[in-house]
Write a structure and sequence with these properties.
The protein is mostly beta strands. It is built from two helices and 16 strands. The chain has a 14-stranded antiparallel barrel with strand order 1-2-3-4-5-6-7-10-11-12-13-14-15-16.
């Protein structure tokens, strides 16, 4: 039972907070300096104004898997997007009630699995600073199925002071509440969440820049994350960040595509993510 509690706290509560975007994982999902389709789960204003196709996957200690597919599509004064994110945990052993000594019985009752997925549809008008999006959420826990709809708002802006570039913004996730209705008739409410962002970028010799990112917010309780990116010749990046635990990564960014890899250590094992973006 203790093992199951860990699983559900790690995966269910982190759904859409730790999506498989290797670069943002390294930066603690605190970067808004760069338009990033995958980042709309944290701030909708990160929706790109160009065609982008995104793919991502993550292995969580060989216990859970994350998947991501999305694209952005500009049309006249509007930017549209679509993002599908799925997290799943399979082959979870189901035990009877634990004995008084809390030892796990050798024989289990069987196995079950759970998954959560979201279909996210953002839209932004080029002359309006706010970005809006709707998300459709599906969940399954053992034999129960849940469905819900959420709504998010995002904003960001950038400005320059001398040789430093600053990016600030905020996002309101589920500002009006979002209820998950289960097949049992029970209803759960997704927590409202607010994020604040501050990024600072500094170029050196036009071939090297350092980006420092930070995010703070409130979701049941206060939280924060931060990250650092060092970019060489515009093509290669080294990344390090902190969000509950340290995380590290590398990335290659070219005109038509980019690929990033991230690694972090968790008490349950290694977490590795790979993200690929195509920019035709």
């Amino acid at each position: 039972m203790f093992f199951l509690i860990i699983i559900f706290n790690v995966y269910s509560l982190e759904f859409l907070r730790e999506i498989p975007d290797a670069r943002e994982i390294c930066l603690g999902f605190s970067d808004i300096s760069k338009d990033n389709l995958n980042m709309i789960t944290v701030n909708p204003s990160s929706l790109p104004g160009r065609h982008v196709f995104s793919f991502g996957t993550q292995d969580f200690a060989s216990l859970a898997r994350y998947y991501l597919i999305g694209f952005s599509y500009p049309f006249k004064n509007l930017n549209f997007g679509f993002l599908w994110v799925r997290a799943e945990v399979g082959e979870i052993p189901e035990y009877p009630e634990l004995p008084e000594n809390d030892t796990i019985p050798k024989d289990n009752l069987g196995y079950f699995s759970e998954f959560e997925e979201a279909f996210i549809l953002p839209i932004k008008h080029k002359k309006i600073p706010l970005t809006f999006q709707i998300k459709i959420i599906n969940k399954r826990l053992k034999d129960l199925k849940g469905k819900g709809i959420g709504f998010d708002i995002g904003y960001k802006r950038g400005f320059k002071i001398k040789s430093y570039m600053f990016f600030t913004g905020f996002s309101l996730l589920n500002p009006f509440g979002s209820k998950i209705t289960w097949s049992s008739g029970k209803k759960d409410e997704e927590a409202r969440k607010i994020n604040f962002f501050l990024n600072v970028k500094k170029y050196f010799f036009k071939k090297f820049y350092v980006l420092v990112t930070a995010k703070a917010g409130y979701d049941v309780e206060p939280f924060y994350s931060t990250g650092l990116e060092m970019n060489f010749f515009k093509y290669f990046s080294l990344l390090i960040g902190w969000k509950q635990e340290p995380r590290f990564g590398v990335g290659f960014n070219f005109e038509k595509f980019e690929v990033y890899y991230s690694f972090r250590k968790h008490e349950l094992g290694r977490i590795q993510s790979i993200t690929l973006k195509l920019k035709p």
